[in-house]
């Protein structure tokens, strides 16, 4: 059951992150809280379009909003990002192994090139 | 331009990861390469449905396939997962700060409780 809830949460987090505007909104909120009007400013999109993106982020638990008078103040909520990060960590061994293999290949290649140059100098 | 390409790649990676079946396929491939028939076995889904999920993972660069006779052998490709992980790392300070704040709160709470118990014993 817990796994099912976690799966549902990951579904909505990755769904929220698949849109570049939503990722840009999260980035802008990493500098501090903002109103939706402030969030919308740098985007060539309508206030309504930004508002919909904010709603997707909110329902994924990535953003929290507080209504103060007529303004909606938004904060980033990092916990679901941490969970997504932890899910990806499972594959860390793969990319690290690949990087190790690449480093060995580059080192070998450099050694061969160095040998070739030294050999060239002798003759 | 590079940023644009990276953004497009992240779009398709997060889009691929938002489905629990696709995440389960990646997990199963983390034990080694498999044919699509082998991948499909544990799922209550048709071969065609699994095949479509494999195509989404492939177009996101998360899976590579090689056709040998009538069998399609699949491997995990971790590079795009690493890039997605790096994107999330940007927010690490947020969840780490939150964890620090939580630890301080728990430690304070434990101290208060301990004091209360000690006080209770004296009387």
Mean pLDDT of chain A: 85
**Largest beta sheet of chain A, briefly?**
3 strands, antiparallel
Question: Which pair of chains forms the biggest interface, and how many residues does each contribute?
Answer: A-B, 30 and 30 residues
* Strand element count of chain A: 3
Strand order of the largest sheet of chain A: 1-3-2
Number of helices of chain A: 6
What does this protein structure show overall?
Two copies of one chain form a homodimer. With 123 residues, chain A is mainly alpha-helical. In chain A, 70% of the residues lie in helices and 11% in strands. The first copy, chain A, is built from six helices and three strands, in the order H-H-E-H-H-E-E-H-H. Chain A has helices at 2-17, 20-29, 36-40, 47-59, 79-89, 92-122; strands at 34-35, 63-68, 71-76. Chain A has a three-stranded antiparallel beta sheet with strand order 1-3-2. The mean pLDDT of chain A is 85. At the A-B interface, helix 1, helix 2, helix 5 and helix 6 of A face helix 1, helix 2, helix 5 and helix 6 of B.
